[in-house]
Design goal:
Elements: H1 8-26, H2 31-34, H3 45-68, E1 73-75, H4 77-80, H5 84-90, H6 99-118, E2 126-130, E3 137-140, H7 141-165
Parallel strand pairs: 1-2
Antiparallel strand pairs: 2-3
Helix pairs in contact: 1-6, 1-7, 3-6, 3-7
Length: 168
């Protein structure tokens, strides 16, 4: 087995652990510390946390659609048509408290983990995704779970780097 290939159990563990890791990295941060960024023009820790949770919430919908209707189509055209920075502004990433987002993250991930354990062949269920500027693609639930696990953990590492830079 290639070292880069993870088992479903390993992927699920990474996916399940995301809310705990995000919660731990921001748990003791003050409001001032939540507003730290890597540098000018970069997102703050608060904004990164909201981005993780909102993105995960969007993909949760895709995962649930795939689990329930293998003929479904999924498109985030409405979302992808707008730059990330505009969503951050529209959805008030810079000013919203993070506790409700952290709670949503835990609940959403918990629901998906529960569904994956209950639905036969859940990891193999598929959905047609209409990507922006790319051909449509049929993707598996397992791919989406792995993608979201990596997305969250990558941004959590980004938060760790911001804190390390400030010796926090």
């Amino acid at each position: 087995m290639n070292d880069d290939i993870q088992s479903q159990e390993e992927i699920l563990a990474r996916y399940s652990d995301g809310p705990l890791q995000l919660g731990e990295v921001v748990a003791d941060l003050s409001e001032v510390e939540l507003n730290l960024a890597a540098g000018p023009g970069s997102w703050t820790i608060r904004q990164i946390a909201h981005h993780i949770v909102d993105g995960d919430d969007l993909w949760r919908t895709c995962i649930k659609a795939a689990l329930g209707n293998s003929r479904a189509e999924f498109s985030l055209k409405w979302y992808w048509d707008v730059p990330q920075e505009q969503w951050a502004t529209s959805w008030e990433y810079a000013r919203r408290p993070i506790q409700p987002a952290l709670a949503l993250f835990r609940l959403n991930r918990g629901q998906i983990v529960d569904l994956l354990g209950r639905i036969p062949d859940a990891w193999e269920k598929t959905i047609l995704v209409r990507w922006p500027h790319e051909p449509e693609e049929i993707i598996k639930v397992g791919y989406m779970v792995e993608m979201q696990a990596g997305h969250a953990l990558g941004h959590i590492e980004e938060i760790h780097k911001i804190l390390e830079k400030r010796n926090i």
